[in-house]
Amino acid sequence: MTRGRVTISIFALLLILTGLAGGLFYHQISRPGPLTAPQRILVERGKGLGAIAHMLEQRGLLRDRLSFRLTARLLKADRDVRAGEFEIKPYASVLEILDELRFGDAVLRRVTIPEGLSSAQIVALLSETEGLVGEIDRIPAEGTLLPETYYFSYGDERQTILKRMERAQLDLLALLWPDREPDLPFSTELEAITLASIIEKETANHAEKPLVASVFVNRLRRNMRLQSDPTVIYGVTGGEPLGRPILRSELDRETPFNTYRIKGLPPHPIANPGAASIAAALHPADSDYLYFVADGKGGHAFATRLFEHNANVARWRRLLKERATSSETVLK
C-alpha cells in the first residue's frame, strides 16, 4: 500500500471516529434527562456558566455538568443564559434545558393586594413577599395605591411594584373621573377617593357598594354628618385594625377623621379602595336612603327615616344577642 493510500485511510478513519464521537455526544445532550418531576430553578444575576452547570447537576437536572458546559460553548450560548426563575419540565434534555434558559419565559409570580388596606399595611405585605427585592423608601399617601393582583418575576424591586400600583390608580381615575355622575357633592379626585375609601371599609359586598355610596352622597347633600365607624377607627389607629368594639369615648373624641364629630369628608382617604368602590363613589345608586346597618346576612339594611333605621338597629342587636346566647349554649 502506498504512502498516499495509507494517509487517505487514516484520514477516513479519523472522520469516521469524529462522526461517531459527534453522534455519541449529540445522543448524550439530546436524550431525556434524569429529572422526573417539574422543577423551578433560579438563575441569579451574575452567576457564571460553571456555577449554573454545578447547580443544575446538584438539583438533579443533569447527569454531568461537562456536557452542559460544552454544549453551551459549542452553540456560543454561554453568554445568552438569562437570569430569572424558570420551570424545567420532566426528562428535559441538556439541549432543552439550555434552550429554556436562553429563550424560555421566566416564571411569573403574583401578589394580591386586598382592598381596603392602609398604605402602611400594603408596604408591610410587599416587604414580606418572597421573590421581591430591595427596600421601599417611603410609605405612599393613603388612597394612592390600587388594590389588585400584580405579576412579577423573581428579583423584581418592591419599589417598582409600588410604582405600578400608583400608576394603576392614576390610570383608573383618568378613565372613571370624566364620566362621573353630574352634581356630586364633591369636586376633586381626592374627595372621590376619600369617599370610596369609606365605602370600601363599610362593605365588602360589591353589589351594595352603590347603595352605601348613595347614603353618604345623600348625607353630604343635606349637610348631615356621615357617622361612619371606620372613620372613627382610622382616627384612633391610623389605619391599623382596632381589634375590638369602638368605645363611646372614641365616638366622642375629636379627630380630623371622626365623622360623628365633623361634617363633610375627612381630610384624606382612610384606606386604599378598590375599583368597585371608586366606581360606586362616582356613580352612586339613585336612592333616598340616609341610614344603613348590618343585616346579619353579609349585607346591610337600608332606611330613609330614622325610626326605620332604629328598628333595623334593634333587629341587628337582637340577632347579636341570640348568637351570643347560642354560642354560650354550645360552650356549655
List the helices and strands and how they pair.
Blueprint: H1 3-30, E1 39-43, H2 49-58, H3 65-74, E2 84-88, H4 94-103, E3 108-112, H5 119-127, E4 149-153, H6 158-176, H7 189-202, H8 209-221, H9 229-237, H10 248-251, H11 275-282, E5 291-294, E6 300-303, H12 306-331
Antiparallel strand pairs: 1-2, 3-4, 5-6
Overview features:
332 residues, Dna Ligase, domain 1, two-stranded antiparallel sheet, two-stranded antiparallel ribbon, 12 helices, 6 strands, elongated, disordered C terminus, MLTG-like, cell inner membrane, transmembrane
Walk me through this protein's architecture:
This protein is mostly helical. The chain has 3 domains: 31-103, Dna Ligase, domain 1; 108-173, no CATH class; 183-331, no CATH class. 48% of the residues lie in helices and 8% in strands. It contains 12 helices and 6 strands. It has helices at 3-30, 49-58, 65-74, 94-103, 119-127, 158-176, 189-202, 209-221, 229-237, 248-251, 275-282, 306-331, and strands spanning 39-43, 84-88, 108-112, 149-153, 291-294, 300-303. The model is unreliable at 328-332 (pLDDT under 50).
